[in-house]
Amino acid sequence: MRRSLVMLLFGVVAALSNAQAPALADVNAFLNVCLTQNPAFTTDDLSGIASPCAAPPGTLIVETLYYQNASRVGGTALAAYPLFRLRTGIVRRLEAVVDAPSQIAESGLHGIGLYPTTHFGYGLNYTIASNSRMASSVGIEALPPNSRFSVSENQAKYIVDLTAGYHLNARSTLSAIATGASSLTVGLQRIEPAAALRYAYDAGASTQISTDFGARIIVRHSVAQSYGDVALNQRLGRKVTFDVGLGTTFNSVSNAKAHYLASGFNLHL
After folding, report:
1. Does a structural domain hold residue 93?
2. Which site in 6, 30, 47, 258 is 20 to 30 Å from 100, CA atoms measured?
3. What is the model's pTM?
4. Closest CA to 33 of 155, 168, 151, 140
5. pLDDT tens track for 50-77
């Protein structure tokens, strides 16, 4: 009789333990997306879609990119590098951002219509809201004059962007961004990208495949240039990821229809 009671007690304890121990997928379902290692929420995209999650306080994120022209126009002389960005958390949900100018920004072509932003700037990104399914943020960045000797009133003086990401299911994430560069004298000057959507799919625990579709307005009142790309994000370690991708524009602007290759590393320190 005593043995039967002991066996019954162990059976009840085991049943309660199984009922209270959810599967790993269920645990992750309740984890805030900004606390995960999902690149769609924590890392800036190759095409310029900013991360909706700010860097945690006391951490530093280093993002580097290399863009290479793959079009007949311009040849290998058109390249953007290193597209170096630093992000560091100040307080919860707030990070400071510093962008370094790339080589193409110094060459005079500025990569307009071909590449993401290649300017020098500094600003703040703030995560407005986040939970287990979505995150959204707003960012503002100041742009110092291109030259300290001749300051142009037409140069954009700041950039404002809105970014959002949403978990469609356990493996898929949809992101969107709107970015505008402006100055007080000319108003809204450039939107790059004017609108963009990104779909990311987790092919494995360390591999994510994504595709972007969007449009860039090169200068005010100009025709929008649509583009698309596909990229692979591979986690090489707990703190290092590698991105590689290729993209194209679907209509020419200023007699240029660009195709490009991109690659870069992201370090979480």
Report:
1. yes
2. 258
3. 0.76
4. 168
5. 889 999 999 999 998 887 777 665 555 5
**pLDDT bucket at 14, cuts 50 / 70 / 90:** very low
**Range of 52's domain?**
46-268
Please spell the DSSP secondary structure of 221-257, one letter per residue.
TPPEEEEEEEEEEEE-SSSEEEEEEEEEESS-BTTB-
* Pair 75, 262: CB distance under 8 Å: no
Nearest partner of 133 among 158, 168, 97, judged by Cα: 168
> Per the domain annotation, does 120 fall within a domain?
yes
Residue at 4 is within a domain = no
CATH code at position 199: 2.40.160
C-beta of residue 248 within 8 angstroms of C-beta of residue 256: no
Q: Which amino acid is at 224?
A: A
Tell whether omega for the bond before 144 is within 30 degrees of 0, i.e. cis: no
Kindly provide the b/e burial profile for residues 32-53, where b requires at least 16 CB atoms within 10 angstroms of the residue's own CB: ebbeeebbbbbbbbbbbbbbbb
Query: Which is it for the CA torsion 72, 218, 53, 80, positive or negative?
Result: positive
Residue indicated by tokens 């199984």: 18
Give the other-Cβ count within 10 Å of 215's Cβ. 18
Give the Cβ contact number of residue 121 at 10 Å: 19
Q: What confidence category does residue 92 fall into, taking pLDDT thresholds of 50, 70 and 90?
A: very high
Cα–Cα dist 135/69, whole Å: 33
Among the listed residues 88, 107, 106, 105, the one whose alpha carbon sits nearest the alpha carbon of residue 97: 88
Q: Is residue 223 part of a domain?
A: yes
Q: What's the domain count of the chain? A: 1
Helix (H) or strand (E) holding 179, with range, is strand 172-183
Look at residues 209, 187, 210, 208 and name the one whose alpha carbon lies nearest to residue 198: 210
